[in-house]
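Go through this chain for my students:
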Amino acid sequence: MSPDGLARLLEGAPEVVAPGLLGCRLVAGGVTVRLTEVEAYDGTGRDAASHAHRGRTARNAVMFGPPGHAYVYFTYGMHWCMNVVCRPEGTASAVLLRAGSIVDGIELARARRPGSSDRDLARGPARLTQALGIARETNGVNLLAPDAPVRLLPPAPGTAPDPATILSGPRVGVVAERDRPWRFWLAGEPSVSPYRPHVPRRP
């Protein structure tokens, strides 16, 4: 896939974009991750699990912007999660980056996540952002810009996944649309997080 091909991919529907992002590289803070697990979310009125389900807010405004931009949000009062915006501008959709394997900068990733095994450095959406040093300031960044501090790149030559290795199943940790099979991952990748259904938090 070329950079232009990646840009065209991101104009599509999230359930098409998501599997196409597997094997792509995310570069930030001196660390490069190969994406191994992602999760698709549609937009206003189409997906009750999406942050954009009820329309535009200050929090989700980036989801309505141009494709290829980063939508970063804070969750559980402690974690940052990163999405890649897709569909044409004005139509909210995004793909949550759930996990990846470190392919460059592993010492920096280890320093950011002390005590973690190498398998777990970017295994899960919060761990992935920690390993890459991603936080609030990444929200709205154009990930396709050559000079961006966080960049989304096509798979390295010879590393694009075989389509037969791409699996799908229910999304993790959501109540609405819980059975929609829009989580995609690479079979046999140890960095892929285990499936856990949503468990309501006690007040």
Remarks:
- The chain is about 15% helix and 25% strand.
